[in-house]
Amino acid sequence: MKxxxxxxxxxxxxxxxLYLSKQGHDVAIIDSLIRRKWDRELGVDSLTPIFTLxxxxxxxFELTGKQINTxxxxxxxFDFLREVMRQERPDAFVHFAEQRSxxxxxxDREHAVFTQTNNxxxxxxxxxxxxxxxxxxxxxxxxxxxEYGQPNIDIEEGYITISHxxxxxxxxxxxxxxxxxxxxxxxxxxxLMFATKNWGLRVTDLNQGVVYGLHTDETQLDPVxxxxxxYDGVFGTALNRxxxxxxxxxNLTVYGAGxxxxxxxxxxxxxxxxxxxxxxxxxxxxxxxxxxxxxEFSILDLAEKVKRVAEHEGIQATIDHIQNxxxxxxxxxxxxxxxxxxxxxLKPHLLTDDVLRGILLTVVEYKNRVVMEKxxxxxxx
Length: 381
Ligand code: NAD
Prior knowledge:
CATH topology: Rossmann fold
Helix content: 25-40%
Distance between the termini: 43 Å
Order of helices and strands: EHEHHEHEHHEEEHEEHEEHEEHEHH
CATH architecture: 3-Layer(aba) Sandwich
Number of strands: 14
Shape: globular
Structural class: alpha/beta
CATH superfamily: NAD(P)-binding Rossmann-like Domain
Strand content: 15-25%
CATH class: Alpha Beta
Strand order of the largest sheet: 3-2-1-4-5-8-12
Bound molecules: nicotinamide-adenine-dinucleotide
Number of domains: 1
Largest sheet: 7 strands, parallel
């Protein structure tokens, strides 16, 4: 298949592009490299030293003989996107290219407006480019489990059957996002759903959980292919952040009580989920939703796991319940369906102590690159 991976220079996009290329697909990357600019704005950097996109794709070609075309540009610029679509005419378009940090979107008005413009306009442009040039192309869009919020009932995969005043219908599952970023994903979902109904596009919305880990078989082939890894208070996500905190002797920063429960998955499963979605396209006119995570944990569960594994390796780790910078439920019911990807063949990599140890020992190698002042959260909402 001819597959475009937008956001292919990022944490999920880069390993996905390599994995799909290895499977024999003809892969092209779109990225504006804006993520690297946000690092400079915030005074942080990936824990792992990442190479330029050009160096990365060149080394991949040297090692495998597989070419990944790169298009440096912004999804919010329609003429650019349209031209790439005209040249590539993809069978599938994997859309990772969004601003994905909730804290970044909550810094101030400007960052909220930027996040929603970047994400919503990029996706709208994609809808119109596909409609005009490649209406059969399967859009595989990264959403987030955060779109649903934390309702006091089970979360379904995209839709829920509701009986009301004697009638019944299957309706989109209610959305209760918790940040301007998560709201942007909800807006995307609505726009995509409308586009599938109205113009018969085919779309899979992958409501992804929090991703942990950094290596895949492909990124591990060579240091030039290494994946990015974020630990700072703005872009660092739970679990990866705790592991890095343990590695550098920083307290593990649990926000509030730590009962916040979310879905998690290994980066190795992210790449496989994308492949599964691509190999099993949605029908024309279908807005298909998969919940893309493999296990649920509370934040405190994760901190305790990291502490135990770190101490086993002779690294002292202390759990610190800091004041929660976010407005969110700290103790709540959480149970979300996630069977559709497994039904299509996903074999999850579960979070064992060995997996935690592997990530911990890798991050220890890079611990001298950590900017300690950037670890604590400083964005509040
Ligand atoms: P990332 O920031 O590492 O990568 C995103 C990439 O997209 C970056 O390389 C950036 O330069 C590019 N980009 C952003 N806006 C762009 C634009 N307008 N035009 C072109 N390129 C643009 O993020 P990630 O962690 O790889 O996340 C990828 C996607 O997965 C996001 O949509 C995110 O919402 C979703 N997601 C991620 C996680 C997670 O835990 N990392 C969890 C759930 C969902």
